[in-house]
Amino acid sequence: MVRKPTLVAGVDSSTQSCTVVVRDAGTGALRRTGRASHPDGTEVDPEVWWDALQAAVAAAGGLDDVAAVSVAGQQHGMVVLDADGEVIRPALLWNDTRSARAAEDLIAELEPGDAHRPGPTAADRGGGSGRAAGRTAGAGRAPDRAVDLAAGRAAWAAATGSVPVASFTVTKLRWLADHEPGNAARVAAVALPHDWLTWRLAGSPGLDRLVTDRSEASGTGYFDTARGTYRRDLLGLALRRDDAARIVLPRVLRAGEAAGTGDPGLGLGHLVLGPGAGDNAAAALGLGMGPGDVAISIGTSGVVSAVSPHPVADDSGMVAGFADATGAFLPMAVTLNASRVLDVVGRLLGVDHGELSALALAAAPGAAGLTLVPYLEGERTPNLPGATGSLLGLTLASATRENLARAAVEAVLCGLADGLAALEDVGAPVERVRVIGGGARSEAVRRIAPTVLGRPVQVPEPGEYAADGAARQAAWALAGTVDPPSWRPAPSRTYDGEPARHVRERYAEVRHRHVASPHAR
Ligand SMILES: Nc1ncnc2c1ncn2[C@@H]1O[C@H](COP(=O)(O)OP(=O)(O)O)[C@@H](O)[C@H]1O
Ligand SMILES: O=C(CO)[C@@H](O)[C@H](O)COP(=O)(O)O
Description:
This protein is α/β, with parallel strands linked by helices. It contains 16 helices and 23 strands. Strands 1, 2, 3, 5, 13 and 14 form a six-stranded mixed beta sheet that branches. A five-stranded mixed beta sheet has the order 17-18-16-15-21, sandwiched between helices. The chain has a two-stranded antiparallel ribbon with strand order 4-7. Residues 36-110, 158-286 form the Carbohydrate kinase FGGY N-terminal domain.
């Protein structure tokens, strides 16, 4: 009798869509996929993610014959739950910049003495001491602008591994406290998109059954990434609550640790649930990344991430010191403007992605001096949440469709090249660079990337690497082994090209002038 292979599923609940892959647990071979769209917007009712997940599962042929599932998701989104487990308000996503001012306030409020708080925090024991915790109790204190922001940035980097920006959960919680104090007072638990979806798959049991993993916890802004412990004093500081010890935070599972089983009431009782991960950490697992490997993901966000055996803490805020899904670290630089820049320029030109790519490749490097500063949604790296975009260098000669298409591709890649340089500056090992995400489907992106980055890039065959990583994690949780299963890495093609230094130099100069100008904001 031929034994049926064991199947596992991986979910990627990303900004624009939900993707499900079903793979062979032993070999990693792809069996089925399904996809459903998410709505536009930076404020979303989590229920739509649940609906999309179910639609994507159905499109992937269901989970009846699947033994384990794990969920990867867009990072940082604030899902606040009341004591009954009900969502208090729509989630604020990673690309919602309304909490930019809150980020600045929080930076100003943390002092160097608050950075280290080893072991269980005072707040964990139900009390509060020290300056940060004291300010928690003294909720409402206006931030002192005289406090040195540089010292605050250093204190946050030392405390959590990252300097908070509007994307981080901690700043969204401060925004909630300042703008919706009634909602902030009702918060009984804070989850991230993937934590919440895993909890829903388990049947929405008690809040104490919420789980997460290091990669996600490290993106909250209230987790000490190097030590692997929550900083409840920072949670209380953000929410202006002195009872932060009572707020439920998802239990942080070990890499590969099972999160229990699915809900029998939903027909999922046979499923082992994996711990899940942030989408970038899941993609690293899906690509089989190790130290020296870098992934450049061109999705809604532009992400440059590298696996590092050591934690990273960058005071400048260019690099976020996150964790990965295997027990190591995943420092990353993240831009807000990536694939959507190509989408919008394609729309302006009235062309689809293929035609946009052909136009860009028909122009010369540097687009005859036409340079796009692509801050169409503000920007996160560098931290310019209020910035706008700009197109400079228009002349009778440069104003062509080809040059505009090229300027868009070069702009996205220049932002990512700056991120790669920032990772190298903080000592992240950089040996092999791979380009993934929806934007990597563009021939122009693939061919122009090595010229802008100044090094060859590998482009794995088009795939759903975050969902694949989640599937590998599901197989890992099912096997209960120390290491994840060995799956054959996806074949990739190497792209190389003559470095075009002038493109980055011109971009840097134009960007600098634009950001300094009063018209930029
Ligand atoms: N051939 C292509 N060229 C450029 N961009 C593309 C192409 N195909 C898809 N995209 C873009 O990629 C994005 C989706 O990529 P994805 O990595 O799934 O994003 P996310 O994870 O943020 O949801 C969309 O903005 C889409 O328009
Ligand atoms: O905020 C970050 C990482 O810090 C983003 O990378 C989100 O995780 C969203 O990812 P995509 O939907 O663009 O893949």
